[in-house]
Structures are given as structure tokens and as C-alpha cells.
Amino acid sequence: MSTFVAENELEKKLIQAQNGEIEGEEFLKEMLDMQVFMPILDKHSIAGFQESKQATPLSFKDDEGAEMVVLFTSPERAKEFVKDYPGYDGGLLEDFKWVIEKIGGGYGVILNPGFEMGLELEADMLELLTN
């Protein structure tokens, strides 16, 4: 039995998709207009103020060497994960479509790493979503 309790609409839809209650393609289309949280590197000491116009999202290479940007369904879900990444305490809460347009091609995303309710989308899947 799942111990993941949905705290927002995106999480409710994610659970439905993973339980087969809605089609994956339908979920992804709906997700485009839902907010996700993207941890970004804060290089400055003034809390909540980012001087740079260039955000540096938290990312890593997966087992196949593909670059994956880390996203969460809410800022609260990110708190435990980002403890291992100094400087990534802050972030952006934006529509998923905006995020994937801004990160550009060649990046995949991993949603909710460390949680049972999450997903990975490779770069080519993200390109299909925004076209």
C-alpha cells in the first residue's frame, strides 16, 4: 500500500497515472499546465534574492549518461533531497511547460527522486511534448 499522500493536483494526477486510472499521455498533457518545483543553485548570500539572470537547475547524469534535471511536485517534497546538494535550498515554482522550454533540448527530467511516486522523462519525450 502506498504511503505517498497527494498534497496537490499534480500529485493526485501522478498517482492516478501510476495506478492506471488515467492514460500516461493524458497525464503528461495535463502536467504541462501544472506547477513543478525546480531547485536552483543560489550563489548569493541574500536569502530569496537571485542576482543572476541565469538559473542553474539541479541536475545529474543517469545510468546511461543522459543529463537529467531534478524537479519536484512541490517545494516541500524537495527539502530532504536538496540537503545533499549545498546551495540548492531555493528554487522556482513554475508550469512544467515553461520549465522544459527553458531547459532546452538535450535534457531529460526526473520528478520526485527518492519518492515512490515520481517519473523520469527522457529528452526526446520532452521534445515531443512541446511540439
Key terms:
Trna Endonuclease, Chain: A, domain 1; 4-stranded mixed beta sheet; two-stranded antiparallel ribbon; 32% helix
Structural account:
The structure is a single chain. With 131 residues, the protein is an alpha+beta fold. The protein has one domain: 3-Layer(aba) Sandwich (Trna Endonuclease, Chain: A, domain 1). The protein is 32% helix and 19% strand. The protein is built from five helices and six strands. The strands form two sheets. Strands 2-3-5-6 form a four-stranded mixed β-sheet. The protein is globular, with a radius of gyration of 15 Å. The relative contact order is 0.21. The model has no long low-confidence stretch (mean pLDDT 88).
Order of helices and strands: HHEEEHEHEEH
The average pLDDT is: 88
At CATH level 2, the architecture is: 3-Layer(aba) Sandwich
Radius of gyration: 15 Å
Gross geometry: globular
Report the β-strand fraction as a percent range: 15-25%
Task: Give a short overview.
The chain is of the alpha+beta class and 131 residues long.
Q: Helix and strand layout, with pairings?
A:
Blueprint: H1 9-18, H2 24-31, E1 35-39, E2 59-61, E3 67-71, H3 75-82, E4 91-95, H4 96-103, E5 108-111, E6 119-121, H5 123-130
Parallel strand pairs: 3-5
Antiparallel strand pairs: 1-4, 2-3, 5-6
